[in-house]
Prior knowledge:
- With 395 residues, the protein is of the alpha/beta class.
- It has helices at residues 23-26, 35-46, 59-73, 89-104, 121-125, 130-134, 158-167, 195-207, 278-287, 295-317, 341-352, 376-394, and strands spanning 2-6, 9-12, 17-20, 81-83, 109-112, 143-146, 178-181, 184-185, 191-192, 211-215, 239-242, 255-258, 322-328, 331-336, 354-355, 357-359, 365-368.
- β16 and β17 (365-368) form a beta hairpin.
- The longest helix has 23 residues, at 295-317.
- The two termini are 30 Å apart.
- The structure holds 4'-deoxy-4'-aminopyridoxal-5'-phosphate.
Amino acid sequence: MFRTALGSRVHDENGRSYLDFFAGAGALNYGHNHPQLKSSLLLYLADDNIVHSLDKHTVAKRHFLEKFQEVVLSPRGLDYKIQFPGPTGTNAVEAALKLARKVTGRQTIVNFTNAFHGMTLGSLAVTGNSMKRNGAGVPLNHTVTMPYDNYLDGRTPDFLLFERLLEDSGSGIDRPAAVIVETVQGEGGLNPASAQWLRGLADLCRRHDILLIVDDVQMGCGRTGPFFSFEPAGITPDIVCLSKSLSGYGLPLALTLIRPDLDVWEPGEHNGTFRGFNPAFVTAAAALDFWTDERLQKETLEKGLQVRQALNLITAEHSDVITGVRGRGLAWGLVFNRPELAPRVCEAAFERGLLMETSGPEGEVAKLLPPLTTSDEELTEGLELLAESVQAVCE
Ligand code: PMP
């Protein structure tokens, strides 16, 4: 059983140490119990500052909002209204989907093959994984699923076909309210969309007055390098969903960023009891100190290169079972040709002191999400443990 954790390491009750290359499924980009974030939290609690405030104004919330504007939005020339939709990623997605339907008066949401957006009904309806959708019992309505970038190995001009059907009144495809997309599909198997594909999608949305929602719950907050994963593509989504590493400390916090003219909510139309969790505002504000310069972004990209090179080497040695290396920034996957291999590699890694997970439609991808603050030595150590684990499973 795990007991303590610091940085990229967790320790069990017997004192055994594990390198954590799963990082709370992307919720711990700055590692466990980061000292600065911890002291901001302890100072806040020590002073009887307010913890739970629903949607009341608080000093902690105002400080976070001002800092988010100053450190994240203004330097990028982004103008969004900020909504606290509830504590988790799925709450941010639900708010985005509801708002898109309310603003446009249209029902359909376009999603993508292998997408993952959450486990509540709305976000599940736009999730591509049929195993997860089966949890809803009966089919979920008002969605159209399109092939994600490279899903068809470039065999079909993705958007042309959809655009043709949109323009054909006999096709039965109504103009959708919105398209929801991840720039890299985390749960879907570390599929990265190209900048060109994302720009094509954004253009299609603009031409047809369809809202573009980027779900940056897993790939945001620096996981792919820049704070927002869509930055390198040069697109500006109409709505952005953030959560996971937003609080920086593993505390629940989510945001829905809304193009100002789309904010048509009436008071009380979307709320939730834990949208005013002040300790998360406090650590989230402290975590923004990572973004006052470009150091973290640069280091993430450099470390990402190191991971990719190591995974390429492992692939070259086991090309009979590994079919590819996919990812971006510090989100990477090793794709196995048989679904049973990736969980066995994760088990072998666990035995050797490395925590990682599987993803992909059949769990065929061994997934690495080390904290962005992982040191070079720890990264090298973890990658060696992974190479040993693959060797042990494949020999
Ligand atoms: N969107 C994406 C892209 C995710 O990866 C996840 C969680 N894996 C969610 C939404 C849902 O977030 P949560 O589990 O916090 O509800």
